[in-house]
Structure formats: C-alpha cells, structure tokens
Design brief:
The chain is mainly α and about 90 residues long. It has helices at about 10-20, 25-35, 40-50, 60-90. Helix 1 packs across helix 3. The longest helix is centred in the C-terminal third of the chain and has 32 residues, at about 60-90.
Length: about 90
C-alpha cells in the first residue's frame, strides 16, 4: 500500500530548522528525534535562513496601502455621486 504524505505545520518546520541552526546535534540526531529525513531538515534550514529577513520588514508598507485604498475608495464614491447628479440633470 502507498504511504500517505505527511504535512507539517510552519511552526514545526521552524522548530526543526532552529534546532538545526543551533548545531548542538547532528542532522542524523535531529532526524531521528523528529522522525524526518536529514535532507528535509537541510531544506527547511536553508529556507528559514533565506526568509529570515522578512521578520524584520517594516509594517508601515501595509499601513500605507490601507491609507491609499481608503483614499481611492472615497474618490470613487465622490465620482459616483457626481456621475449620478449629472445623469439626473441631463435627463431633465
């Protein structure tokens, strides 16, 4: 029978990657501890290191986009009101 594929949560992957980064245990020891192949641990460790800079990115980018969105929505509303007014004036 075919063995079903296991899925790991991001928190578990981070935990294993941090364990590998600490270098207190060998990859084989970590692999047997978490019942994962050593290659998988190396992959998660590499991905963790590559994406670690995202933890320190500024949150203001999302704030700027929210402000911009609200300004655009208010402009759309204003234009819609003006458009409706002009339609009523032209119908008369």
């Amino acid at each position: 029978m075919k063995k079903s594929r296991r899925k790991f949560s991001p928190s578990f992957k981070a935990k294993v990657a941090l364990e590998a980064i600490k270098d207190q245990l060998t990859l084989q020891e970590i692999a047997s501890k978490f019942d994962i192949h050593p290659t998988q641990i190396s992959t998660w460790k590499r991905e963790f290191i590559e994406n670690s800079s995202k933890a320190f990115e500024s949150k203001s980018k999302s704030d700027d986009t929210d402000k911009e969105k609200s300004a655009l929505y208010s402009k759309i509303g204003q234009l819609q009101v003006e458009n409706d007014f002009l339609k009523k004036v032209l119908d008369k």
